[in-house]
Design goal:
106 residues; 50% helix; 0% strand; single chain; 3 helices; mainly alpha
């Protein structure tokens, strides 16, 4: 305790994450995408560019979703926050401040 308050290190949240970056669902998503890509690479082969891109797509998409971004743990968390804000928040902000004059009904 310092001056009656607690000192909390800035990286306390990182200590709860796997390797400092990932949560278990992030790792499951990433590993699943990479495994699907490996299976598709074995099945489809890489003799044509289009087939190689199709085979690599699940791994690349899952990797993109778990890449860390500023102020968010990863892109998946950012997208979830963005969708929550877009669809689950109040869109009208009525003014209820101290200088608002209420009209009296007669």
């Amino acid at each position: 305790m310092i001056n009656g308050g607690y000192l909390i290190p800035a990286n306390t949240k990182k200590g709860q994450l796997i390797a400092g970056w990932f949560t278990p669902p992030d790792l499951i998503l990433f590993i699943t995408g990479v495994l699907i890509s490996l299976v598709l690479l074995i099945i489809l082969g890489v003799d044509q560019t289009l087939r190689a891109l199709i085979a690599l797509a699940p791994g690349l998409i899952c990797t993109f979703l778990v890449i860390p971004v500023a102020n968010y743990r990863n892109v998946r968390t950012f997208l979830k926050s963005m969708i929550d804000f877009k669809f689950n928040t109040q869109k009208k902000y009525p003014w209820k401040g101290w200088c608002c004059y209420e009209q009296r009904k007669k």
